[in-house]
Write a structure and sequence with these properties.
By secondary structure, this protein is mainly alpha-helical. The chain folds into four domains: 40 residues, N-terminal domain of TfIIb, CATH 2.20.25; 33 residues; 93 residues, Orthogonal Bundle (Cyclin A, domain 1); 85 residues, Cyclin A, domain 1 (Orthogonal Bundle). It has twelve helices and four strands. A four-stranded antiparallel beta sheet has the order 1-2-3-4.
């Protein structure tokens, strides 16, 4: 057996015979992903799965597997570019000489510069960095970040970045991704996470909604219950009672045209009163990020229904 090949004799242990010569001599070549007969040479199966354990590297910052790190739209190069690690040691762990360190520093510098070739690449790198910060502040999932980066790439192709700030476009794309994924995040929360005006994000969101022809689902007020109840420190029993109120309102078509966050906050306020878990309108409104006037107006209709 040569050093360049690793033969796994698991097929022989299973007593599977060769279809040509009939001998129990089947072996697996992991490098070529083939199962063949060591007696007559016939290839029985191609492109088999590699069942070896994953390799781990001590100083690796990527996924510790022999398949490599996964590609992602949240990276400007999608994770396909090479990276020269900043460790000034060779493969044996010995320190590099001074001249070799200088050469590696120059190579690392030009490698970084070669990734960004156009203004669009530079814009995309900065935008995805802002997107990563906003994702952490809003506690969003990787799937929503992937969707937001996809929307931003489409906006970049349509040249919607010209005349607009990167921050406002990133915030609008992230809000659009939250709307598509039905994640309960308001424009005010998105604006606060990046430090720009809500009006600017709203105008940019309307632009990408029109130009990219996005299809947004209607936000369900029930999905906002958990968020408001958590901020107001309400019990699970109150949340369930509020959900019953909202479902009853939907059956009577009372939720049409109403702000979902306002409806959810009003239902929670009424549920807290009925279950003697008292919260003021101001506490509920602050937890939902709306005004007390909205809570009072929505409560009038829900009280009549109850």
């Amino acid at each position: 057996m040569s050093s360049g090949r690793f033969f796994d004799h698991i097929m022989s242990s299973q007593e599977i015979k060769c279809p040509r010569c009939g001998k129990n001599a089947l072996v697996t070549d992991v490098e070529s992903s083939e199962i063949f007969c060591s007696n007559c040479g016939i290839v029985v199966e191609e492109k088999t799965n590699d069942r070896r354990p994953e390799r781990a590297f001590a100083n690796s910052t990527t996924d510790k597997s022999h398949t490599g790190d996964k590609t992602s739209l949240t990276r400007h190069d999608r994770g396909l570019s090479t990276v020269i690690n900043p460790f000034d040691k060779d493969s044996a762990g010995s320190p590099l000489s001074a001249s070799m360190k200088s050469s590696m520093t120059r190579l690392r510098k030009w490698d970084n510069r070669s990734r960004i070739k156009t203004n669009d690449d530079r814009n995309l790198q900065q935008a995805l960095l802002e997107l990563s910060k906003m994702k952490e502040k809003l506690s969003l999932s990787d799937a929503i970040a992937e969707k937001a980066s996809y929307i931003y790439r489409k906006a970049l192709e349509k040249k919607l970045v010209k005349g607009r700030s990167i921050a406002s476009l990133v915030a609008a794309c992230l809000y659009a991704a939250c709307r598509e994924s039905e994640a309960p995040r308001t424009l005010r929360e998105v604006a606060a996470s990046i430090g720009i005006k809500r009006k600017e994000i709203s105008a940019t969101y309307r632009l990408i909604f029109k130009e990219l022809d996005l299809k947004m689902p209607v936000i369900d007020s029930v999905s906002c219950i958990a968020k408001i109840a958590s901020n107001a420190e309400l019990s699970e029993k109150t949340k369930r009672y509020a959900i019953k109120i909202l479902k009853k309102a939907e059956k009577q078509n009372m939720s049409a045209g109403k702000h979902p966050m306002g409806l959810a906050a009003s239902a929670l306020y009424l549920a807290s009163i009925d279950l003697e878990e008292f919260r003021t309108q101001k506490e509920i409104a602050d937890a939902a990020g709306i005004t007390e006037v909205t809570v009072r107006n929505r409560c009038k209709g829900l009280k009549q229904m109850i």
